[in-house]
Amino acid sequence: MRNYFPRSSRNTQHKPRGAKEFKTRLGIFLHKSDLSSDTGNAGKPEWNNKHSKERNFSEDVLGWRESFDLLLSSKNGVAAFHAFLKTEFSQENLEFWLACEEFKKIRSATKLASRAHRIFEEFICSEAPKEVNIDHETRELTRTNLQAATATCFDVAQGKTRTLMEKDSYPRFLKSPAYQDLAAQASATNASPSSCSSAEPSHT
Known about the structure:
Blueprint lengths: L15 H17 L21 H10 L4 H6 L1 H13 L3 H13 L5 H16 L11 H10 L9 H21 L1 H14 L4 H4 L6
Helix pairs in contact: 1-4, 1-9, 2-9, 4-5, 5-6, 5-8
């Protein structure tokens, strides 16, 4: 049986290369309205017109530091947080949380059972390819829940993974130089009412 301890305590010393990669991704994220495709299922930033959406995006960015709930409720925030977690080699925690959110939307009992076993094999069982940081008791409880899978069978494991991210990874995300730079640019955008109109000359 593997000892339980937060993944952040493993292989999470400051890595200049990882921090630089994250900062680069967020720069692309802000200026090109796209994020590297390696964010997987975490989603990509989305807005329609660069200028008309610029202020809304800035408000979105600043909202991420208000609460973890606001970050998770923002598709852009989830994508940025996922990019940060990749630099700490702990993106599986967020991917599991997102998988659970999608799992709860399934209405077919047959599909629910099939998806439950796939999620368990990918994230929960010992030596899973994307094993999340949960204790043995929670793992066994989840295994038992699979015997009669329902939309709530991952709730305990999902809750513990969310708590771990909120208390551990989320504060570091907010303190990261990359997010600090992004928030500063977002604040500057909000403080400049003419920023959108002056960004490019008008064509009439």
